[in-house]
Amino acid sequence: xxxxxxxxxxxxxxxxxxxxxxxxxxxxxxxxxxxxxxxxxxxxxxxxxxxxxxxxxxxxxxxxxxxxxxxxxxxxxxxxxxxxxxxxxxxxxxxxxxxxxxxxxxxxxxxxxxxxxxxxxxxxxxxx
Length: 128
Description:
The chain has helices at residues 8-15, 26-29, 36-48, 53-62, 72-80, 82-85, 92-104, and strands at 4-6, 32-35, 66-68, 107-110, 124-126. By secondary structure, it is α/β, with parallel strands linked by helices.
């Protein structure tokens, strides 16, 4: 079973039981990776929404099978993606997600519709 990579919007969709969460089945979540950059983004969003820091951390980590450290290789790839993704307004967190997916050659799951026509060498699944 190959890994998949979730961006912060996909993780938030699962945590908040938002539309599209049903597409992230237990089988998919059992092989889900995320970058430490995206984990920080989810953690911060949950705190902003009123979670305690400990509850936010538990919720953010509870959705993911494995958290992968953002490496120098990922940083270079994320930086390289600026030109390709600028018109779509992708953030550093978005590019960190894509960099991880490229590094491990895994499909990406996102709730961000602007990624629909993005072509960066990995399959992108838009969940809503």
